[in-house]
Design goal:
about 30% helix; 10 strands; 2 domains; Transcobalamin-like C-terminal domain-containing protein; Ferric Hydroxamate Uptake Protein, Chain A, domain 1; about 160 residues; five-stranded mixed beta sheet; disordered N terminus; 2 helices; TAT_signal; Transcobalamin-like_C
Length: about 160
Protein backbone atom coordinates (compact mmCIF):
# COMPACT_ATOMS: atom_id res chain seq x y z
CA UNK A 1 0.00 0.00 0.00
CA UNK A 2 2.87 2.38 0.73
CA UNK A 3 4.32 1.89 -2.75
CA UNK A 4 0.94 2.63 -4.40
CA UNK A 5 0.54 5.83 -2.38
CA UNK A 6 4.09 6.85 -3.25
CA UNK A 7 3.40 6.26 -6.99
CA UNK A 8 0.15 8.27 -6.83
CA UNK A 9 1.93 11.14 -5.09
CA UNK A 10 4.72 11.09 -7.68
CA UNK A 11 2.20 11.03 -10.57
CA UNK A 12 0.15 13.83 -9.02
CA UNK A 13 3.28 15.92 -8.46
CA UNK A 14 4.44 15.31 -12.05
CA UNK A 15 1.00 16.19 -13.47
CA UNK A 16 0.82 19.35 -11.38
CA UNK A 17 4.33 20.32 -12.48
CA UNK A 18 3.39 19.87 -16.15
CA UNK A 19 0.20 21.89 -15.68
CA UNK A 20 2.07 24.75 -14.02
CA UNK A 21 4.74 24.66 -16.72
CA UNK A 22 2.12 24.83 -19.48
CA UNK A 23 0.08 27.58 -17.79
CA UNK A 24 2.31 30.48 -18.95
CA UNK A 25 2.20 29.20 -22.55
CA UNK A 26 -1.59 28.92 -22.43
CA UNK A 27 -1.87 32.40 -20.92
CA UNK A 28 0.48 33.77 -23.58
CA UNK A 29 -1.57 32.15 -26.37
CA UNK A 30 -4.77 33.62 -24.93
CA UNK A 31 -3.12 37.03 -24.65
CA UNK A 32 -1.93 36.86 -28.26
CA UNK A 33 -5.43 35.97 -29.43
CA UNK A 34 -6.86 38.91 -27.49
CA UNK A 35 -4.52 41.33 -29.31
CA UNK A 36 -5.18 40.31 -32.91
CA UNK A 37 -5.06 43.96 -33.98
CA UNK A 38 -1.39 44.27 -33.11
CA UNK A 39 0.54 46.38 -35.64
CA UNK A 40 1.97 44.56 -38.63
CA UNK A 41 4.61 45.70 -41.11
CA UNK A 42 3.52 45.35 -44.72
CA UNK A 43 4.61 46.73 -48.07
CA UNK A 44 2.02 49.01 -49.64
CA UNK A 45 2.25 49.51 -53.40
CA UNK A 46 0.09 51.88 -55.45
CA UNK A 47 0.28 51.26 -59.18
CA UNK A 48 -1.36 53.94 -61.35
CA UNK A 49 -2.18 53.86 -65.06
CA UNK A 50 1.19 55.42 -65.90
CA UNK A 51 3.38 53.53 -63.44
CA UNK A 52 4.34 53.25 -59.79
CA UNK A 53 2.84 55.96 -57.58
CA UNK A 54 4.00 54.69 -54.19
CA UNK A 55 5.81 51.75 -52.61
CA UNK A 56 7.01 51.55 -49.04
CA UNK A 57 6.87 49.40 -45.91
CA UNK A 58 4.46 50.70 -43.27
CA UNK A 59 3.27 49.66 -39.85
CA UNK A 60 -0.50 49.39 -39.70
CA UNK A 61 -3.45 48.04 -37.73
CA UNK A 62 -7.22 48.17 -38.12
CA UNK A 63 -8.61 51.59 -37.21
CA UNK A 64 -11.27 54.18 -38.03
CA UNK A 65 -10.68 55.75 -41.43
CA UNK A 66 -11.84 59.17 -42.60
CA UNK A 67 -12.19 60.18 -46.24
CA UNK A 68 -13.53 63.43 -47.70
CA UNK A 69 -16.27 61.63 -49.62
CA UNK A 70 -17.02 58.72 -47.30
CA UNK A 71 -16.74 60.21 -43.83
CA UNK A 72 -15.42 58.31 -40.81
CA UNK A 73 -16.04 54.58 -40.46
CA UNK A 74 -14.36 51.57 -38.90
CA UNK A 75 -11.87 49.72 -41.10
CA UNK A 76 -10.71 47.01 -38.74
CA UNK A 77 -11.83 43.67 -40.10
CA UNK A 78 -15.04 43.59 -38.09
CA UNK A 79 -16.78 45.19 -41.09
CA UNK A 80 -19.48 42.97 -42.52
CA UNK A 81 -18.86 40.63 -39.56
CA UNK A 82 -15.81 39.32 -41.42
CA UNK A 83 -13.86 38.87 -38.14
CA UNK A 84 -14.98 38.69 -34.53
CA UNK A 85 -12.12 40.93 -33.38
CA UNK A 86 -10.24 43.86 -34.88
CA UNK A 87 -7.46 43.00 -37.36
CA UNK A 88 -5.16 44.96 -39.69
CA UNK A 89 -6.66 45.51 -43.18
CA UNK A 90 -5.49 46.65 -46.64
CA UNK A 91 -7.48 49.90 -46.62
CA UNK A 92 -6.21 50.73 -43.13
CA UNK A 93 -2.68 50.15 -44.49
CA UNK A 94 -3.35 52.54 -47.40
CA UNK A 95 -4.65 55.11 -44.91
CA UNK A 96 -1.56 54.81 -42.71
CA UNK A 97 0.73 54.98 -45.78
CA UNK A 98 -0.99 58.15 -46.99
CA UNK A 99 -0.90 59.89 -43.60
CA UNK A 100 2.74 59.08 -42.98
CA UNK A 101 3.97 59.85 -46.47
CA UNK A 102 2.09 63.01 -47.36
CA UNK A 103 -0.33 61.85 -50.02
CA UNK A 104 -4.11 61.66 -50.12
CA UNK A 105 -6.66 59.08 -51.03
CA UNK A 106 -10.43 59.20 -51.12
CA UNK A 107 -13.17 56.64 -51.05
CA UNK A 108 -16.91 56.32 -51.02
CA UNK A 109 -18.53 54.54 -48.07
CA UNK A 110 -21.09 51.88 -48.97
CA UNK A 111 -23.23 51.03 -45.96
CA UNK A 112 -24.68 48.00 -47.74
CA UNK A 113 -21.15 46.52 -47.97
CA UNK A 114 -19.95 48.05 -44.68
CA UNK A 115 -16.82 49.10 -46.57
CA UNK A 116 -15.08 51.79 -48.57
CA UNK A 117 -14.54 51.79 -52.30
CA UNK A 118 -11.15 53.36 -53.02
CA UNK A 119 -11.87 56.02 -55.66
CA UNK A 120 -8.73 58.20 -55.82
CA UNK A 121 -5.12 57.73 -54.75
CA UNK A 122 -2.52 60.51 -55.10
CA UNK A 123 -4.92 62.45 -57.31
CA UNK A 124 -5.48 59.54 -59.71
CA UNK A 125 -9.14 58.62 -60.04
CA UNK A 126 -10.63 55.40 -61.31
CA UNK A 127 -13.42 57.41 -62.92
CA UNK A 128 -16.04 55.71 -65.06
CA UNK A 129 -13.64 53.41 -66.89
CA UNK A 130 -11.39 52.07 -64.12
CA UNK A 131 -11.25 51.16 -60.45
CA UNK A 132 -8.65 50.56 -57.76
CA UNK A 133 -8.31 46.80 -57.29
CA UNK A 134 -6.89 45.48 -54.02
CA UNK A 135 -4.62 42.46 -53.83
CA UNK A 136 -2.61 40.86 -51.07
CA UNK A 137 0.44 38.83 -52.01
CA UNK A 138 -0.60 38.97 -55.66
CA UNK A 139 -4.14 37.66 -55.10
CA UNK A 140 -7.22 39.90 -55.38
CA UNK A 141 -9.07 40.16 -52.09
CA UNK A 142 -12.40 38.29 -52.12
CA UNK A 143 -13.94 40.90 -49.77
CA UNK A 144 -13.57 44.63 -49.24
CA UNK A 145 -10.40 46.33 -48.07
CA UNK A 146 -11.78 46.89 -44.56
CA UNK A 147 -12.78 43.23 -44.21
CA UNK A 148 -9.66 41.33 -45.35
CA UNK A 149 -7.05 40.50 -42.71
CA UNK A 150 -3.43 41.23 -43.53
CA UNK A 151 -0.41 39.83 -41.73
CA UNK A 152 3.17 40.81 -41.05
CA UNK A 153 5.23 40.74 -44.26
CA UNK A 154 2.27 40.88 -46.66
CA UNK A 155 2.47 42.71 -49.99
CA UNK A 156 -0.61 44.97 -50.22
CA UNK A 157 -1.26 46.46 -53.67
CA UNK A 158 -3.77 49.01 -54.93
CA UNK A 159 -3.74 48.85 -58.72
CA UNK A 160 -5.54 51.13 -61.15
CA UNK A 161 -7.49 48.68 -63.31
CA UNK A 162 -9.48 49.58 -66.41
CA UNK A 163 -12.59 47.69 -67.44
Amino acid sequence: MGTTLLRRTALTTAALGLALTAAPAVAQAQTAAAFTNAPVRVTVTVQGPDGLLFQKKVFTWGHDVTTATGGTHKCDGTNGSAHATKVPTPTAALDHAAKRNGFTWDGTWYASFDDFSVDTVKGVSGGGSAYWSISVNGTPTPVGGCQFEIENGDQVAFTWTSF
